[in-house]
Design brief:
The structure holds 2 protein chains of 2 kinds.
Chain A: H1 3-51, E1 54-55, E2 61-62, H2 68-74, E3 75-77, E4 84-86, H3 89-120, H4 124-135, H5 142-153, H6 158-165, H7 179-203, H8 208-215, H9 220-248, H10 252-257, H11 265-273, H12 279-311
Antiparallel strand pairs in A: 1-2, 3-4
Helix pairs in contact in A: 1-12, 2-12, 3-7, 3-9, 5-7, 7-9, 8-9, 9-12, 11-12
Chain B: H1 2-24, E1 26-32, H2 38-48, E2 51-57, H3 60-69, E3 76-77, H4 81-89, E4 113-114, E5 117-118, E6 123-136, H5 148-151, E7 161-163, H6 167-178, H7 187-200, E8 204-207, H8 211-216, E9 222-226, H9 227-236, E10 240-243, E11 250-258, H10 265-275, H11 278-288, H12 303-307, E12 321-322, H13 328-342
Parallel strand pairs in B: 1-2, 1-3, 7-8, 7-9, 11-12
Antiparallel strand pairs in B: 3-11, 4-5, 6-9, 6-10, 6-11
Helix pairs in contact in B: 6-7, 7-13
Classes of the chains: A mainly alpha, B alpha/beta.
GO biological process, one term (chain B): polyamine transport
GO molecular function (chain B): polyamine binding
Family (chain B): Belongs to the bacterial solute-binding protein PotD/PotF family.
Chain lengths: 312, 343
């Protein structure tokens, strides 16, 4: 047998092995892929299909193609006359939700960054305890935590009782059932999502760079904004996204703390499947919300991609 | 080793058999939240050796949406009057013929031939009451029997009002205040209603179903309310007074019915019959604080129920207005008004 034949045989054997491995890998992955398909893509598909149907009389859908749900988002037909006019109601609900979610993100950032910095600069053996304390609220259900917040800020709650008993205020601060209450609730609910990724970034920072900054006559602010923040940026971005997205679709917080007078996106979508009996519009609104989230993620991906190329 | 295996096998067979036996003795009730007497449920469980599972909803529409989504596993639902009609029309209820059951003789004849279920082939009375509002007379001591309190409140009540988070209840109150008909498709009149609601909204603090909690925690001093909820709130805040506005108010009845395809149909029928027993109906009333439409239940009721101003209407009050389901065009208009109001 020639040497060449050997090589060919070897290559064939390798190829065979590789194919078999690929096949094994496929079959091993198949259950996981099937589950992903079944629990994530299928429901999404149903939502997409429903958003193009006509609402049934008492909820549900009738199988008639219609793009009304998407038109309805910006325009309305025949509320008081028969023309198609611009309708800002849903848009303003979306805009308010985006505003509140952005506010909550910034608030969580302002509170979360110093917290993460504090933990990251503790001796290594203490950090786990602090991290544990940060994650502790997650042991309680979100509904109960939100309700606890309601008890704290209500007219006869702890804050107002202390302020009034100590004579600082004569009548209670009406925080509950306002946008401020929703804002406080959102920050409180999602703060750990901000702290943890920032901590993960800060922990990796080589603090001798900070010393180098001081050696080069930078003051504290300069070190913060030119050394620490750029190094912690991946964590800041991740934290921002992790707070913004759930805050945007929040349901319980505005429902309990907002007093139900104004809708946020989540509540508006829920209403379509209940009292409004308009499942297609609920589906369409859910998809529009999802598109918004995807846009946020895309912008982030593009920005970080450009930066990576710029650095490279 | 073999014996251990055999033991395990036996144990699993026994476990399987007993779980099957338990499944046969179950009943899944889907009722409004905070509306089911635990005492009454316990009595039913002990009498028929059935395990009752209870789940709650806060509006007819939320219940309908869940039932329509299918495969809920619930046996019993307690829809309001118009919702019974909707669900019968949609084929969602089982025709269990309560009118042939032993205890049907106890149902007050005036609640038998009702428009939502003539002759009672599907449902029986659970509780009935009115939807108006209740005011703390220590805060406001003027005349309360007018809807003006909701839509043009005196200074002391501004920002101290809870409205029900219910499209129909809020819009119907507006229609009554302006003197227009219910289930109204008249666009000019609805435009006025929207203007009225929009103008009044800044004076409302919240729009929520949790009436009792809102009133007893001191969050608000006045709330749109069901009469029984008003009575329960009054137990903790004695200065509350339930209003019978001269412009009119809503009457309603919630009814016990069985879902089509109920997994525990026989137990559900037992429950329907059980609920028509005066003593059991009274247990529900004593808990939820509404009248029940079952004759002979008075003697089992708390004495204060029989004279409570929330239940016994004054002679001067207008008759409660039982609102029929509105056609889809009207619902669409109401939806738009509601979204405009809550944007």
């Amino acid at each position: 047998m020639s040497k060449q034949d050997d090589t060919v045989a070897l290559a064939a054997a390798l190829e065979h092995n590789r194919r078999r491995e690929r096949l094994t890998r496929f079959w091993l992955l198949a259950p996981a892929l099937l589950i992903i398909l079944a629990i994530s893509i299928l429901p999404l598909g149903i939502t997409v299909v429903y958003s193009f149907l006509t609402p049934g009389t008492y909820g549900g859908v009738t199988w008639e193609f219609s793009t009304d749900s998407y038109v309805q988002f910006l325009f309305q037909r025949d509320i008081f006359d028969d023309t198609l006019v611009f309708n800002s109601a849903y848009l303003s609900i979306f805009l308010r939700s985006i505003g509140l979610a952005l506010g909550a993100t910034i608030g969580a950032l302002i509170l979360g960054f110093p917290t993460a910095y504090f933990i990251a600069t503790k001796p290594r053996e203490q950090r786990n305890l602090w991290l544990f304390l940060i994650t502790l609220p997650f042991w309680t259900n979100l509904l109960i935590r939100t309700y606890a917040m309601l008890l704290i800020i209500r007219d006869e709650g702890i804050i107002n009782l202390v302020l009034m008993k100590s004579g600082i205020l004569s009548s209670p601060l009406a925080i509950l059932y306002t946008d401020t209450a929703v804002f406080i609730g959102l920050i409180y609910s999602f703060l750990p999502f901000m702290v943890l990724p920032i901590y993960a970034s800060l922990e990796k920072i080589d603090f001798s760079l900070v010393e180098a900054g001081y050696d080069l006559y930078a003051n504290r602010l300069k070190v913060l904004f030119h050394v620490i923040v750029p190094l912690a940026k991946p964590g800041l971005v991740a934290g921002g996204i992790l707070v913004f997205i759930p805050a945007l679709g929040a349901y319980i917080t505005p429902e309990l703390l907002g007093g139900g007078k104004k809708l946020m996106i989540g509540n508006m979508i829920a209403m379509q499947f209940g009292a409004s009996r308009n499942w297609p519009f609920g589906s369409a609104a859910a998809l529009i919300l999802m598109a918004l989230v995807v846009i946020v993620l895309l912008v982030n991906a593009l920005a970080t991609g450009r930066e990576a190329r710029g650095n490279g | 080793m073999k014996t251990v295996l055999r033991l395990l096998a036996t144990a699993s067979v026994v476990a399987f058999a007993s779980s099957a036996a338990m499944a046969a003795g179950e009943l899944n009730i889907y009722n409004w939240g905070n509306y089911t007497s635990p005492e009454m449920i316990k009595k039913f469980e002990e009498k028929y050796d059935v395990k009752v599972n209870l789940d709650g909803y806060d509006s007819n529409e939320a219940m309908l949406a869940k039932v329509k989504a299918g495969d809920t596993g619930y046996d019993i639902v307690v829809p309001g009057d118009y919702m019974i009609k909707v669900m019968i029309g949609d084929g969602l209820l089982e025709e269990v013929k309560p009118n042939t059951m032993e205890n049907f003789k106890n149902v007050d004849p005036k609640w038998v031939d009702v428009w939502w279920d003539p002759g009672r082939n599907y449902s029986i009375p659970y509780q009935w009451g009115t939807t108006s509002f209740t005011v703390d007379t220590a805060v406001y001591d003027g005349e309360i029997d007018t809807l003006a309190l909701l839509f043009n409140p005196p200074e002391v009540l501004k920002g101290r009002i809870n409205m029900l988070n219910d499209m129909n209840d809020v819009i119907n109150a507006g229609l009554r205040y302006l003197g227009y008909g219910r289930c109204n498709g008249n666009q000019e009149e609805l435009r006025e209603v929207l203007a009225l609601l929009t103008k009044a909204k800044p004076d409302w603090r919240t729009m929520d179903y949790a009436i009792i909690e809102k009133l007893t925690s001191g969050d608000v001093d006045m709330s749109q309310s069901w009469n029984g909820a008003a009575m329960r709130a009054r137990a903790q805040r004695p200065t509350l007074k339930y209003a019978y506005p001269k412009e009119g108010f809503t009457g309603w009845m919630d009814n016990v019915a069985v879902l089509k395809g109920a997994p525990n149909l026989e137990n559900a029928k037992l429950f329907i019959n059980f609920m028509m027993d005066p003593e059991n109906a009274a247990m529900t009333s004593n808990f939820a604080r509404y009248a029940n439409g079952i004759l002979g239940s008075d003697e089992f009721m708390d004495p204060e129920m029989l004279s409570a101003p929330e239940i016994v209407m004054p002679a001067s009050a207008p008759a409660p207005d039982f609102v029929t389901p509105c056609p889809q065009e009207v619902v669409d208009l109401y939806n738009k008004i509601w979204t405009q109001l809550k944007q």
